[in-house]
Write a structure and sequence with these properties.
The complex is a heterodimer of chains A (382) and B (344).
Chain A lengths: L4 H13 L3 H14 L4 H9 L10 H9 L4 H11 L2 H8 L16 H10 L5 H11 L2 H12 L8 H9 L6 H8 L7 H7 L27 H4 L14 E9 L5 E6 L11 H4 L6 E11 L2 E2 L2 H5 L9 H6 L2 E11 L2 E2 L5 H20 L3 E2 L20
Parallel strand pairs in A: 5-7
Antiparallel strand pairs in A: 1-2, 1-3, 3-4, 3-5, 5-6
Chain B lengths: L2 H4 L1 E3 L2 E4 L4 E3 L7 E3 L12 E6 L1 H11 L4 E6 L5 E4 L2 E7 L7 E7 L2 E5 L21 E6 L11 H14 L5 E4 L5 H11 L6 E3 L4 H9 L7 E3 L12 E4 L7 H4 L5 E5 L6 H6 L4 E3 L7 H11 L3 E7 L1 H10 L3 E4 L21
Classes of the chains: A alpha+beta (382), B alpha/beta (344).
The complex binds zinc ion (2 copies).
Chain lengths: 382, 344
C-alpha cells in the first residue's frame, strides 16, 4: 500500500460506505497495519478530530474550479451531484497519471505541515497542485478534510479500539496514555504493535499545536457580522505557549514554546522560572519596561539565545500577554467555545499568575466590539 | 436529401422514411433494426428484425424464438440495401453483439450509436468510429463528473474486501446482460479462479455468452439449500435482488453494485450499497467527447441520458449539436440504482 493521501482516501471511502462497526474496525486496523509512520498517525488524528484546518473554505474551492471549468457544465454537474467537494473532486481536470504531468500525490503529513505554515495567499496554488496530483477519491478526501465535512461515522473511541487491535492492547490502555500525546503518535503505534515501550504520557508540559492567526483581507470586512466575533489587540511580539505541571517525582516542569513547538525556555529563564501553575497558556511574548510594551526590535535582542545575562533580563524583562488557555490543570479546554475559554483564562490568570509572578502577567484586555473605530487589521506575525 | 428526411424521431422510435424502417423502436413496427439486446432497445413483437446474430440470439433467449415474425442477420461491416437506403452495422463495444447502425442515402450518412463504450472489454467487439455526416450519440454518462476509473482498480477493491472479510459473502448487483459477464471476465483476468455463484435469473445469458465464445470459468447457480455455505464467495445477482430477502439469506453479505452510477456517492447510498464498483457498459464523459471528435461529424444529435451537458460541450467545441428527445430509453444496462430493473 502506498503512503500517500490516496491510500488514506481509499480508507475514508470504504468507511463512508461500511455500516457495520466490526467492518469499520477491520478496515481501520488494516490501514494502520499497512501504512507507515507518520502517515498513519496523522490519519488517526484526522479520524479522531484532532486536525483542524482554518483556511480552506468553500469559497476558495469554488474559485479554483471556476478557473478550470465551464460555468454551465459546472452548474449542471453540481446540480446533479449535489455536493460541492464531490463535484469538484470528480470534475477537476485530470493530470493524475497523464504522461508528462506526473507528480507524486501528497502525503497527509505533508498536507498537515503545509496547511499549518502556508500563508492564506499561497493557499490556492498549493491546493491546486495537490488536486492535480490526486485521483478522484483522493481529491474528495482532501476537500472533505480541509473543509471539515468528513462524515465517516467513526468515533474517537472506535479509532482507538482499531489501534489497540494492532496488537495485544485493550482500548482502555490506549485511553490511559492518549491524553498528553500529540500527532503523529509514533510511540503510541510502536507500543500498540508491541515494538516499543508504553509511551511517556507523563510529560507534564508538552507542546500543543496552536491555533494560528491569519490576516483579514479587505473583502472579509463586508462578510463579517460583528456580533459573531470578538476582538483584541494584536501585539508585536512573538507567539508563545507556556506549559507547566508536576512530573511523577513531584518536580515542577515548565516550558516555553514557539508557535512551531520549539522549546525556547532557555532564552527566558526569568519568565519560565516564575511560572507555578498547572496548565498551558497561549499568548504573546513581549518586553515590557515601566509598563510600556517595547518594539519588536527590542524583543529581538533576547531571541535566539541559549543563555541570557542578568543585565539583559533586568533591562528587558519578558512578559506574556495571554490570549487563550489550552489546559486548565489537567483539563483539556480546547474543545470549549472561545467565550468559555476566555472566562477560564481570566479566572486562571487571576488565580495563579498575578499572585505568583506579579506584573509579568497581565489580565487579558476586555473584548472589544469588532466595529471599532480602526478597521485596519494589525499585521500578524503568527 | 436533408438529414432529418433520412432519419427522425417519432413516438415509435427513430424512423427512416426512404426505407420504411425503425431503429430500436419502442412500439411494435413492421421492420426494426436493433442495435443490441438490452430491453429498452430490443423489444418483442416486430414484423421483421435485422440485427447481429448475437443480438438475435439474445432476443430469443429473453423473449423466446417467436419474438419476431422474420429475422435477418446483419454482418458487422456488411451493407444491406433496404429501399433506397444502404444499412451497415458496425461494432459498438457495449455488450455482446452490440452495433452502431449507419444509414446512408443520397450522399448522407447518419450513424446511430445505440449504446457504446470505448473501454477495453473482452466480452464483445471493440467500438469502431465511422465517419459520418450526423452522429447520434448516447449520453448516459454525459456529465463531466463521470470519468470511469480503470476497471482493474475496481476489481482490486472487490478482491481486497474479500481478503479482509473472508467470513462474509460478497453479493454484487449487476445487470444480467453484459455487465454480469464483463464483471466475471474482469474478476477472472485478475487471477480469481474460484467458482463464481450467480442468481438463477442470470444463468441463460451467461450460458449464451459462453456458447458465443466468451469463456467465464467455473460458474455455479446459487441453490437455496447451499446459501449458508457461501461465506467468502462471490455471488452475482440482478440489481433488484441485492436488497431482497434472497440476498439477506446469504452469510453476512457485503452488498456491492457494479455500475457507472456508483461514481456518485448519493446514488450508492440511496441503494444501500456498501462496496460500490464503478464498472460501466457506457462511454464516460471523456470517451463521449473523444468519440465525437473521432467520427468527425459536423452535426451531433444527443439522446439517451444527459443531453444538455454534451450539447453544451459540442457548442463550445464548434460542433453543431441538438438534443434528440427520444422517449422510452435508458432503463437498460445501467438503469439508475432505483430504476426499474428486475429480471430480464
Ligand atoms: Zn444498452
Ligand atoms: Zn440503452
Amino acid at each position: 500500500m502506498n503512503a500517500d493521501l490516496n491510500s488514506f482516501a481509499w480508507l475514508l471511502d470504504r468507511l463512508a460506505y461500511e455500516p457495520r462497526r466490526n467492518g469499520k474496525l477491520a478496515l481501520i486496523t488494516d490501514y494502520f497495519r499497512c501504512s507507515p509512520d507518520p502517515e498513519r498517525g496523522f490519519a488517526l488524528a484526522a479520524i479522531t478530530g484532532q486536525l483542524r484546518f482554518a483556511n480552506a473554505k468553500a469559497g476558495l474551492i469554488r474559485a479554483l474550479i471556476a478557473e478550470r471549468t465551464d460555468p454551465e457544465l459546472f452548474a449542471l454537474s453540481y446540480d446533479y451531484v449535489g455536493d460541492l467537494s464531490e463535484t469538484v473532486a470528480l470534475m477537476w481536470p485530470a493530470c493524475h497519471g497523464a504522461a508528462g504531468h506526473y507528480r507524486p500525490a501528497p502525503t497527509l503529513a505533508e498536507i498537515v505541515e503545509a496547511l499549518a505554515t502556508t500563508d492564506k495567499r499561497a493557499l490556492p496554488a498549493l491546493l491546486a497542485g495537490w488536486l492535480d496530483a490526486l485521483d478522484e477519491t483522493g481529491r474528495w478526501a482532501l476537500l472533505k478534510l480541509i473543509t471539515g465535512g468528513l462524515r465517516i461515522g467513526v468515533s474517537a473511541r472506535m479509532a482507538k479500539t482499531a489501534l489497540a487491535a494492532l496488537g495485544e492492547l485493550e482500548p482502555d490502555d490506549i485511553e490511559e496514555v492518549w491524553h498528553g500525546l500529540e500527532p503523529p503518535y509514533a510511540a503510541l503505534f510502536a507500543w500498540a504493535e508491541g515494538l516499543g515501550p508504553r509511551p511517556d504520557a507523563s510529560d507534564p508540559a508538552p507542546f500543543r499545536p496552536a491555533m494560528l492567526a491569519h490576516p483579514l483581507e479587505d473583502e472579509d470586512f463586508d462578510r463579517l457580522v460583528p456580533a459573531d466575533f470578538s476582538a483584541e489587540w494584536k501585539w508585536d511580539g512573538i507567539r508563545i505557549q507556556a506549559a507547566s505541571g508536576l512530573n511523577s517525582q513531584g518536580q515542577r516542569v515548565t516550558r516555553l514554546y514557539s508557535r512551531t513547538g520549539e522549546d525556547i525556555s532557555g532564552a527566558f529563564p526569568d519568565l519560565a522560572g516564575g511560572i507555578a501553575f498547572d496548565g498551558a497558556i497561549d499568548g504573546e511574548l513581549l518586553i515590557v519596561v515601566d509598563g510600556r510594551v517595547q518594539s519588536f526590535n527590542v524583543l529581538q535582542q533576547r531571541l535566539n539565545r541559549k543563555t541570557v545575562s542578568a543585565k539583559l533580563m533586568t533591562e528587558h524583562p519578558a512578559h506574556i500577554r495571554a490570549y487563550d488557555i489550552l489546559f486548565d490543570g489537567t483539563e483539556d479546554v480546547r474543545p470549549l467555545p472561545l467565550a468559555e475559554r476566555r472566562a477560564r483564562l481570566e479566572a486562571f490568570v487571576a488565580r495563579h499568575v498575578l499572585s505568583t509572578v506579579g506584573r509579568r502577567w497581565q489580565p487579558a484586555v476586555p473584548i472589544l466590539p469588532a466595529s471599532g473605530p480602526d478597521r485596519t487589521p494589525m499585521p500578524s506575525r503568527a | 436529401m436533408r438529414p432529418h428526411e433520412l432519419l427522425h424521431p417519432t413516438p415509435a422510435g427513430l424512423y427512416c422514411p426512404p426505407a420504411d424502417l425503425y431503429i430500436d423502436p419502442v412500439r411494435p413496427v413492421a421492420r426494426a433494426l436493433i442495435t443490441h439486446g438490452h430491453a429498452d432497445h430490443a423489444r418483442a413483437g416486430h414484423g421483421a428484425v435485422l440485427a447481429t446474430t448475437e443480438t438475435l440470439g439474445i432476443m430469443a433467449v429473453r423473449y423466446g424464438e417467436g419474438f419476431t415474425q422474420s429475422r435477418q442477420v446483419a454482418v458487422l461491416g456488411g451493407t444491406v440495401r433496404i429501399g433506397a437506403v444502404d444499412v451497415t452495422f458496425h461494432p459498438a463495444g457495449h455488450v455482446l453483439g452490440s452495433a452502431q447502425i449507419a444509414v446512408e442515402s443520397g450522399g448522407i450518412r447518419i450513424v446511430a450509436s445505440g449504446d457504446y463504450k470505448r473501454a477495453a472489454d473482452r466480452t464483445c467487439r471493440a467500438f469502431e468510429p465511422v465517419p459520418c455526416d450526423v452522429f447520434i450519440t448516447e449520453a448516459t454518462f454525459g456529465l463531466p463528473v463521470f470519468r470511469h476509473p480503470d476497471t482493474a482498480g475496481e476489481v482490486a477493491k472487490l478482491l481486497s474486501s474479500l481478503a479482509l472479510f473472508p467470513e462474509r459473502c460478497h453479493v454484487i448487483g449487476a445487470y444480467a446482460l453484459g455487465k454480469a459477464q464483463r464483471l466475471i471476465a474482469l474478476i477472472r483476468d485478475a487471477g480469481y479462479d474460484r467458482p463464481i455463484y450467480v442468481h438463477g435469473a442470470m444463468e441463460k445469458l451467461i450460458a449464451f455468452y459462453e456458447s458465443s465464445g466468451v469463456p467465464l470459468g467455473d460458474i455455479r447457480k446459487v441453490v437455496a439449500a447451499e446459501r449458508k455455505t457461501l461465506k467468502g464467495e462471490i455471488v452475482i445477482c440482478p440489481p433488484s435482488a441485492i436488497q431482497d430477502l434472497w440476498a439477506r439469506q446469504l452469510p453476512d453479505p457485503v452488498t456491492a453494485f457494479a455500475s457507472g452510477w456508483m461514481r456518485i456517492r448519493a446514488r450508492a447510498r440511496q441503494k444501500g450499497v456498501e462496496l460500490p464498483l464503478i464498472v460501466s457498459d457506457h462511454a464516460d464523459w471523456n470517451d463521449l467527447c473523444t468519440t465525437i471528435r473521432d467520427v468527425g461529424a459536423p452535426e451531433i444529435w444527443v439522446t439517451h441520458g444527459q443531453e444538455d451537458a454534451l450539447v453544451r460541450w459540442c457548442e463550445m467545441s464548434g460542433i453543431r449539436a441538438r438534443p434528440l428527445r427520444l422517449a422510452g430509453y435508458g432503463d437498460d444496462g445501467e438503469a439508475e440504482p432505483d430504476g426499474p430493473q428486475a429480471t430480464p
